[in-house]
Specification:
This protein is 44% helix and 14% strand. It is α/β, with parallel strands linked by helices and 262 residues long. It has two domains: 208 residues, NAD(P)-binding Rossmann-like Domain (Rossmann fold), CATH 3.40.50.720; 36 residues, no CATH class. The chain has a seven-stranded parallel beta sheet with strand order 3-2-1-4-5-6-7, with helices on both faces. Helix 3 packs parallel to helix 4. The two termini are 33 Å apart. The model has no long low-confidence stretch (mean pLDDT 97). Keywords: Oxidoreductase. Its EC number is 1.1.99.21. This is Sorbitol dehydrogenase. GO terms for molecular function: D-sorbitol dehydrogenase (acceptor) activity; oxidoreductase activity, acting on the CH-OH group of donors, NAD or NADP as acceptor.
């Protein structure tokens, strides 16, 4: 059986661990060449092992997505090594939370700088590269969240940032349709990534819970009965990047165990 992403070159941001690393692994297994970016100056231990396993089809480029000149350099270096970028997995994001009346401007600026401004301009610059390169079958996958589907009292800025991603996905899909470039999103539910240690600690602080209790509760509340694993996002990410999804654009797919129903 042929690999589903042969001849694709995927650029993945926020890919040193968690969902980004899981998707990069799946893309490589499906035959793609991958350029992965994250803010760390050196690759994580997990990513280093992946680089050793795929030395000819994977590279890591440290990038701060809030710095436009670094994004430009990322796209240039990616295409110089592996050719035109055909797929963007737009995943870099941060999380923070506080009661609405205590949430300050600094928190707002941090979250929106990465999750909205950074994500938008990474998408815009990669799309411009795809158009200039006359990429056939280009695909962008923006990472939203179930948090972008609703408000949460303690998580107002993060929810708003992910709602913005869903909206930008729709607008970009319409703008890129004449170029036959598809733009879709994925909205994960509660996924057991390393970031959840910090999320759980914040909920423990603001909801007066024991450490680990929030994580247990949200997992049990999922209709399928448990939190997701980063690998649970890989099927959707591979499908949306592949030619099998050639007639799908402007959609944000929930991968959340049934938490949100469209």
């Amino acid at each position: 059986m042929s690999l589903r992403l042969t001849h694709k070159h995927a650029l993945l941001t926020g890919a040193a661990g968690g969902i980004g690393l899981a998707v990069a692994t799946a893309y490589l297994q499906q035959g793609a060449r991958c350029t992965v970016a994250d803010i760390g100056k050196t690759a994580s231990a997990e990513l280093t092992r992946l680089l050793q396993a795929y030395p000819d089809s994977l590279q890591y480029l440290p990038t701060d997505v809030t710095r436009p000149e670094q994004v430009d350099a990322l796209i240039h270096a990616a295409s110089a090594r592996f050719g035109a970028i055909t797929t963007l997995f737009n995943n870099a994001a941060i999380f923070d939370m506080a009661p609405l009346l205590e949430s300050d401007e600094a928190m707002y600026d941090r979250i929106f700088a990465v999750n909205v401004k950074g994500a938008f301009f990474v998408m815009q610059k990669v799309l411009a590269h795809m158009v200039a390169s006359q990429v056939q079958g280009g695909a962008v996958i923006n990472m939203a969240s179930q948090a972008g589907r609703r408000g949460e009292a303690l998580v107002s800025h993060y929810c708003a940032s992910k709602a913005a991603i869903i909206s930008y996905t729709q607008s970009a899909a319409l703008a890129m349709a004449p170029h036959r470039i598809r733009v879709n999103g994925i909205a994960p539910g509660v996924i057991a990534t390393p970031m959840w240690k910090d999320v759980d600690a914040l909920f423990a602080k603001y909801e007066n819970l024991p450490i680990g209790e929030k994580k247990r509760r949200v997992g049990e509340a999922v209709p399928l009965g448990h939190m997701g694993d980063p690998t649970d996002l890989c099927g959707a990410a591979v499908f949306l990047a592949s030619d099998e999804a050639s007639y799908i654009t402007a959609q944000t797919l929930n991968v959340d165990g049934g938490n949100v129903m469209n």
